[in-house]
């Protein structure tokens, strides 16, 4: 007879599991020890897992006994699955081994440790096997495999470490260490960080901890120089610990910028080593400041969010804390582990992970970003929030409704340059009002995009892009997350603007054609309520803009006026800050504030 298993069984102790389950059936008071130390997956045998779940369920009713457990299993048709009444009887027999002992509590604790240790060993085997498979796969980099292995080990460590067995000596030692460390560094950790630009800090309340701050702009607007000015201010006046991930510039280029900002010496002079004697003292002062500063620069141009998170956490664990992370820039981050349908989805995934990292580390993360190319096609080049990420679009075939609830074809709007305001739905219920906002349309832009057709109740149909949103009975949902038969809200009666619940009959791919992008939030299209929200995880969005038409040639050659447009501020007002930019030493300085 051949052996049933071709491989060695995973670590387990069948007898210990039987004794534990049987002892609890006989003496329900022992269940408290198991609940505190044992999850269901700690048991390897499926029948033992099922019975253990039912024991926990019956314990809430204080009705654990052999009859009730048998009845509960039979009622849910699980009795045969676990082996019938014979299995219950066998467990009770095993449970009687320690039942007569005065030290039964001690024995149960030892049995729990045996079961726990076997579970930990199974985890090590499972994750070890996963690590071997990853290491043998040439598609994954060694850095990725290393981070995955570290995550597995950290998870096992979190499972194995038992806080309940700490003795008083360890607790007192940790308590005193914590007090000393907190008193020593409380000022650094609790101090609110500021950018160094007073008018900007008034609007944003500095650089709030846990916030993801996006700094965007077209090429050559000075995004990197602007964030390096903030970094230098944090290093000089706050002694902050900064971690810079530069995916575009090298470490030496970052160093040149910091020295140039601090000393006022031209970057070109630093690169070409054309430094005069009187400038040496300034360079020495700045270099001395940088030597005493805690600044870490990583110029790996092919980094992922997992690697950014791992490096940041490692630095924070090895030192007191990391105060700020700077990433230059978003579009160069490469996620190798996700298969997104579009780069837009991938960037959304990246920003979400960075937002979570900022919250976990309780620090601000400043990330630079490029703007969409559609801005170059506009006459007015001033960036909008929607330029940071594509918003939803609708097809040329559709009708929209104006403020008087009249259907207007999109071509009519374009040809006659009609300015539309949002549709206010007077009979909307209070629980839906929160989903609407009072934004107004100012412009409509055309572009080419893939569209999808949604058929509603066999009557209505709309053609929208995959990232456009429809209002369901609970919230706004993107087209690529909608499914057949999902209920959405519809404005069937144009005279009374009443909302009705309807359902999606079919979703299909339409074509690649001209679509129109609206610059406002809520509107009705072919009786379907749509939304044009910008899904971003950023708490603050700053956009750099330079209007050359308003600046004379002399100011361009010397100091340029740069608008810092705060397009989004989750916890404060938006506005525009004007700064002087000196392209020679890449320094920014304040002028005034206008909102």
Automatic annotation (TrEMBL):
Residues 186-392, 533-595 form the SF4 helicase domain. InterPro entries: DNA_heli_DnaB-like_N_sf, DNA_helicase_DnaB-like_C, DNA_helicase_DnaB-like_N, DNA_helicase_N/primase_C, P-loop_NTPase. Keywords: ATP-binding, DNA replication, DNA-binding, Helicase, Hydrolase, Isomerase, Nucleotide-binding, Plastid. One of its GO terms (molecular function) is ATP binding. Its EC number is 5.6.2.3. It is an enzyme of class 5 (isomerase). It catalyses: ATP + H2O = ADP + phosphate + H(+). The keyword Membrane does not apply. GO terms for biological process: DNA replication. GO terms for cellular component: cytosol. The keyword Cell inner membrane does not apply. Belongs to the helicase family. DnaB subfamily. This is DNA 5'-3' helicase.
């Amino acid at each position: 007879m051949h052996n049933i298993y071709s491989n060695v069984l995973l670590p387990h102790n069948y007898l210990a599991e039987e004794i534990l389950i049987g002892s609890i059936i006989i003496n329900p008071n022992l269940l408290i020890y198991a609940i505190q130390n044992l999850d269901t997956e700690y048991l390897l045998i499926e029948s033992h897992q099922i019975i253990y779940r039912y024991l926990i369920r019956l314990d809430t009713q204080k009705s654990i006994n052999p009859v009730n457990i048998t009845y509960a299993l039979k009622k849910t048709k699980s009795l045969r699955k676990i082996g019938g009444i014979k299995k219950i009887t066998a467990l009770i027999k095993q449970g009687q081994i320690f039942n007569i002992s005065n030290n039964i509590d001690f024995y149960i604790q030892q049995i729990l440790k045996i079961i726990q240790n076997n579970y930990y060993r199974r985890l090590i085997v499972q994750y070890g096997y996963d690590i071997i498979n990853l290491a043998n796969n040439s598609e994954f980099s060694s850095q990725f495999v290393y981070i995955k292995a570290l995550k597995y080990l950290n998870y096992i460590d979190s499972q194995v470490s038992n806080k309940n067995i700490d003795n008083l000596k360890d607790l007192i030692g940790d308590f005193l260490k914590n007090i000393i460390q907190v008193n020593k560094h409380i000022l650094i950790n609790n101090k609110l960080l500021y950018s160094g630009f007073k008018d900007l800090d008034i609007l944003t309340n500095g650089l709030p901890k846990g916030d993801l701050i996006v700094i965007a702009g077209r090429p050559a607007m000075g995004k990197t120089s602007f964030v390096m000015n903030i970094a230098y201010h944090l290093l000089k006046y706050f002694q902050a610990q900064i971690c810079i991930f530069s995916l575009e510039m090298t470490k030496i280029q970052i160093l040149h910028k910091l020295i140039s900002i601090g000393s006022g010496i031209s970057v070109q002079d630093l690169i070409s080593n054309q430094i005069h004697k009187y400038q040496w003292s300034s360079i020495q002062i700045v270099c001395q400041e940088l030597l005493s500063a805690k600044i870490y620069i990583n110029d790996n141009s092919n980094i992922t969010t997992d690697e950014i998170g791992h490096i940041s956490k490692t630095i924070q664990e090895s030192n007191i804390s990391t105060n700020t992370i700077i990433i230059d820039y978003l579009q160069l981050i490469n996620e190798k582990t996700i298969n997104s349908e579009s780069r837009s989805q991938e960037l959304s995934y990246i920003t979400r992970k960075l937002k979570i990292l900022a919250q976990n580390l309780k620090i601000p993360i400043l990330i630079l970003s490029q703007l969409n190319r559609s801005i170059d096609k506009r006459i007015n080049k001033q960036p909008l929030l929607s330029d940071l990420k594509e918003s939803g679009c609708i097809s040329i075939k559709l009708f929209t409704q104006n403020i008087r609830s009249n259907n207007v074809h999109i071509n009519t709007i374009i040809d006659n340059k009609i300015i539309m305001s949002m549709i206010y739905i007077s009979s909307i219920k209070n629980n839906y009002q929160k989903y609407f906002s009072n934004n107004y349309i100012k412009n409509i832009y055309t572009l080419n995009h893939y569209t999808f057709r949604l058929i509603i109740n066999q009557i209505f149909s709309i053609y929208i892009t995959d990232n456009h949103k429809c209002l369901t009975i609970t919230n706004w949902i993107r087209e690529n997350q909608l499914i057949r038969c999902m209920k959405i809200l519809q404005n069937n009666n144009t005279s009374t603007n009443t909302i009705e619940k309807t359902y999606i009959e079919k979703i299909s791919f339409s074509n690649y054609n001209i679509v129109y992008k609206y610059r406002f939030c809520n509107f009705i299209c072919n009786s379907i309520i749509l939304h044009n929200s910008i899904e971003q995880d950023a708490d603050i969005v700053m956009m750099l803009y330079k209007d050359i038409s308003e600046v004379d040639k002399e100011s361009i050659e010397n100091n340029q006026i740069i608008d810092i447009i705060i397009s989004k501020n989750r916890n404060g007002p938006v506005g525009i800050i004007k700064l002087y930019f000196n392209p020679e030493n890449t320094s920014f300085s304040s002028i005034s504030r206008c909102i």
